[in-house]
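User: I want to check something. If I give you two sequences, will you return the structure for each one separately, not as a complex?

Assistant: Yes, each is folded on its own. Here is the first sequence with its structure:
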Amino acid sequence: MDLLEQLSLGTILADGAMGTMLHARGVGFDKCFDELNLTNPAAVADIHREYIEAGAQLIITNTFGANRYKLKKHGFEDDVTEINRAGVELAKRAVAASFKNIFVAGDVGPLGVRIAPYGRVKPEEARAAFAEQVKALSDAGADLIVIETMSDLYEIQEAIKASKQTCDLPVVASVTFTRDDRTLLGDEPMKVARTLRDAGADVIGVNCSGGPSQLLRILKQMKHAVLDGKFWVKPNAGWPEQVGGRIMYPADPEYFGDYALAFREAGASIVGGCCGTTPSHITAMKKAFETAPVFVAESISILAEDEMLDEPAEQPTQLAQKLSAGKFSICVEMDPRADSRLINYWLAHLFYMMPARM
């Protein structure tokens, strides 16, 4: 069945993180994850298999950074087509082995360079790079294109244009937000939703960012801006924290299960996980969907604009307030491995000096 037809029947469960799972298998963050489609296909295929067994109805190819600009950093800029084709083929093989009807989404991430007016890369150059990747994904048999983790509306619009001009597959366009519910360049959720709709995205998305709580808040605002839109939500497992030299995510599977229902009730058409999520998170979301009544889209009640948020956005820190007011501020970067006595000395010295410097 066509993806958009399937979405009219109910919410689809997508997979979770690929990078998190590869890193857990010993792949360093400095490596080119996309190139593993060629050099370690078994690891990639095994992750797809785990997500399918967990209940995912849609899996995303391991091609997030498989564009010419990002691959050039690893010396693979001439392998764009081969890496993307292999990514789709691995996902489709995992689907075939499962004997299930699973959608395969061709993953497209940011180029890793700034485009005009914020950078030197021209819009037409960016569009060509996106088109090169999208064509490889489409030709290899992807069922849809997912443009994700974008923070620049100029860039994502070029990616959508490239997709629409290159193939006739459905396009998901997904943006990431900072702690203050704005993109890195300052765009708020309602503007983002309208921009993606006007650019031609078939499904409007929000992914990565903070945990489920923040993305539920953002989803409600996006839904308010585009009442008839279809929405994609894939949150991180909370904000990442460094513990003992390891990157840890606080949101456990049970927490995701609870929020899966909240996303569905708020109007999400596709729900899954981003950084820090695992097959266990997807399993919990699947169980939540199976045990709760089927959601009826027509029952959504659209809240008034001043009632949209069921919890306030995180307030600016004292530092942010001072900077915005043009006040002098002192910042200190401390090595957590430093002796506690040295840290206390410098903090005491800092507080002693502050009144004279304000």
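And separately, the second sequence with its own structure:
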Amino acid sequence: MNLHSYDELVKSRHRLSLLLFLFLNTASSIFTMLTTVDNRKLITIPVVIIAVLGVTGLLFTLLRTQKLHKVLNTYSIAMGILWAWHITLKYHQIAPDDKNFLLLSLFSVFFISAIALSGNFIAFTLHVLPAALMVIYLDQFHNIIRILFTIALPMAGFSLHHLMQKRSDAFTRRLVDNLYIEREKFSDLSMLDPLTNLYNRRGLENRWASITAPMRPQSHFVLLMDIDHFKAYNDNYGHTMGDQALVRVAAAIRDNVRSRDIVVRYGGEEFMVLLTHVEHAYAQKVAQRIQQEVLGLEIPHVFNEDVSTHVTLSMGIASLTDRDWVAAVTHADNALYRAKNNGRNAIEFAQEIPVVQEQPVTSLA
């Protein structure tokens, strides 16, 4: 989960609160209209409006999923004012001396807010405040202590709940952010070879998937290369020296291609370079430059004496057309096999690539 998905979760929570709030108001208004007092149904205009507004609000919310977090406050103040209006009208209709009616009405409004708006302090306040003020006004301060206690206790509780919720949300956001950063770091590390810091095969697949530009014929090239007699090098110099040789060869390859080209440790002593949007003459020059650079490292390798007394590379090159990755790698591997059979420290091209007359090796632009 990232911050975007967490924000979507928060929006979903606001939407569910709005749906619950509208449903409870609608149900309460319908119940009020069906309730009788002294065998009389006391239906008021505001309670009818609440029912209509609730039903239309439910339909609107179910059909619309975007930008609903601000709508909740609007509905809250509107419903709060309508309930305050209803309490006023009904209070004058039934009996001004019935003080229990005011407290019960206030409890009803708080009940709706407590269930539906516990996670939104602003909406909670907007909903209960009109009714609370109206009850205080109608009571003429006769039961002010009871009414204030009825108001203050849930307000204090919801204030503390709101503060804890904000801190919890802030902590969750930081946690999600940190987890996302750590996941990105882990993902990056999982795509890199820990010894050479080049891409591994997973990193190659990831980078290859990101190449979406249209390909021209023979505009991409696969260079598959292998260190000559590396098993003998490891057997005689030891694996620690072998690792050092791999690191130096990997650095030489990486330093002689462009930053946008993909360099991969393809196997134990096997490397791959994907050159993007170049001509075959340029691919040939890069291959020669890499080969000379590795030889110029002068890494002693007396068990490579049939080719050189230093570490050398054999290389196969194939074009990558029509995004046929498997065919390109197969052709490059076959070319590498021929280079090995032709004496090593050699460069061979796949049959579909014309060999260009060698040109002096130039530095990268």
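Because they were folded independently, the notes below concern the second chain alone. The chain has a mean pLDDT of 81. DSSP finds eleven helices and seven strands in the chain.
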